Amino acid sequence: MDDNEDGEEDRFLSNGLMKKRKYEEEEYHPGHASFGMSVFNLSNAIMGSGILGLSYAMANTGIVLFTILLIAVAILSLYSVHLLLMTAKEGGSLVYETLGQKAFGWPGKMAAFGSIIMQNIGAMSSYLFIVKYELPEVIRAFLRLEENSGEWYLNGNYLVVFVSIGIILPLSLLKNLGLLMIEQSLDDNVKAFYFYFSQLIYKKTQLPCPLPFFYAHSSNLSMNTSDMSGLYAIRHNTSLMDFSRADITPAVSSSQDAHHTTGVHFEPHPDDEEMCTPKYFVFNSQTAYTVPILAFAFVCHPEVLPIYSELKDRSRRKMQNVSNLSILAMLIMYMLSALFGYLTFYGNVEDELLHTFTKVYKFDTMLLLVRLAVLTAVTLTVPIVLFPIRSSITTLLFRGREFSWIRHLLIAMFILVFNNMLVIFVPTIRDIFGFIGASAATMLIFILPAAFYLRLVKSLPFTSWQKIGALVFLLVGIVFMIGSLSLIVLDWINHPPGSKAGH
Predict the structure, then answer these.
(1) Is the separation of the CB atoms in 352 and 50 below 8 Å?
(2) Which of 195-199, 278-282, 372-376 comes out lowest in average pLDDT?
(3) Its principal location (predicted)?
(4) Residue 82, SS3?
(5) According to the model, what pLDDT value does residue 9 have?
């Protein structure tokens, strides 16, 4: 059977973007995408669920240290793109896996395949984690429940399974994903995260500090139900926010009017100023997750070459400029997203920022719309990410065989079952960001581009400053991978699932 009859063979990028074919020689394939469209496509490839973990990263590094690390990872990503483009020119291929094969034979190809598969599995798992976190909150808001009542339909683990079986699996069984469906889903994904970003900035202007739930573990505060109701009425009538009564504590108001109206007697909390003071340098057990989270958020390197192949009148300099603008745009967006999220919740921010708002807003309409938009986008993106994983598995294990619907179904089911198990049994989305960022993302950003460059670029002597720079880059990647994975594993040992690591 002709390879073109296989609905997935050689047709998808590692994040689900469609590519026409795997062109070996760039000069024989004229591109048709404009410069602006290429910037947009690469920005889409970069943006993803990693944006939801950036405020948590800032809370555990401080504003200054986070900014330094964010800029450093962005610059290193650009240098990695430079190495990749040079390697593609000298290696004569615009396919990441083929460069690995040309550089190191079968082991190089397997390293590229394995890293891309791991990165996609991490992306899928992070999307399913969002379903696990946010869908129960959407259902609770529609049912007007103040708190999660513990019913099965409010259990995130059950909901992930139902969404996977009822929506994701049927879409994943399509033999081909149409280009229109891919572009629409990815466009919706970007719109959803921009909507999230705009609401994040807006909510920061509406929320006071300290927020009520900051005092959840304080032993100095007490009040009865009537006190809470009275204070809730004051807050609600001033239209500051839609808090639930259970969230309100007297410490959020220091005005004499609130005291006389409700009869609440309290003393100012001694940590008020500390709770609402931004930290500039922070070091704790969670700091080890920061650079892996940033690497996870910036990885786009398997998409660089296919986007390059479609660039009209392409040249390495032009594609480098595409990368420069895309990464700069994401750098600014990531910085603002992390900053506004951190300055809203400070040390109380959770590893998935959107879920943190649950402690503040119960029935806020705009946040409900944000949740619906993000849930819809990530749910429809999961099948797009699943296709290249299945394509890679099919290529590795069943290359040359005729298309089989049974195999097509079984591989999709295996991938979904595996990802559902990860989402159910891995404690938090932070662990996915951290582990995948420290392993697969590090391979794709640091180790593989540098190794391919050193092996395939023959026009420069090994003693040239370019080759020495690539060697240093490779060593930095190896040290970072080993160090980050070690620190993350140590954190898992010292703070096992169920325990709460302090900030």
Answers:
(1) no
(2) 195-199
(3) membrane
(4) helix
(5) 42
